[in-house]
């Protein structure tokens, strides 16, 4: 209804209104701050950025730590949590595997950024 207020991020209703420091949607009842809506939009713009399990931005050459034990096909123990992986390379891999690296004792492999933390 008001041209200057953004639509509801939950249901896309245009009937939003201000209530103090919050924006409110009368149709679904969702409340949000105007800054939170713009922050969500800016997160969409940097979709090419790869982040680790806690939200740190990763780049080529970083050292990361594995945060959970991973099973490896053909290996009895797998990769244990706490294993450091040096000199990673970011790639657009298959099935979410976006880190290419060499792990001592295992060799070359690909990892998901959701299972590592920047060291």
UniProtKB/TrEMBL annotation:
This is Zinc ribbon domain-containing protein YjdM. It comes from the Bacteria. NCBIfam families: phnA. Residues 50-119 form the Protein YjdM C-terminal domain. The lineage of its organism: Bacteria, Bacillati, Actinomycetota, Actinomycetes, Kitasatosporales. Residues 4-33 form the Protein YjdM N-terminal domain. Belongs to the YjdM family.
């Amino acid at each position: 209804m008001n041209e200057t207020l953004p639509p509801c991020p939950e249901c896309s209703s245009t009937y939003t209104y201000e209530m103090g420091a919050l924006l409110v949607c009368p149709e679904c009842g969702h409340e949000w701050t105007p800054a939170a809506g713009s922050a969500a939009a800016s997160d969409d713009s940097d979709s090419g950025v790869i982040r680790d399990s806690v939200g740190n931005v990763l780049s080529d050459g970083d050292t990361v730590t594995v945060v959970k034990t991973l099973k490896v096909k053909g290996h009895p123990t797998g990769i244990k949590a706490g294993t450091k992986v040096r000199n990673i390379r970011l790639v657009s891999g298959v099935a979410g595997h976006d880190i290419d690296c060499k792990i001592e004792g295992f060799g070359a492999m690909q990892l998901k950024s959701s299972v590592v933390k920047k060291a």
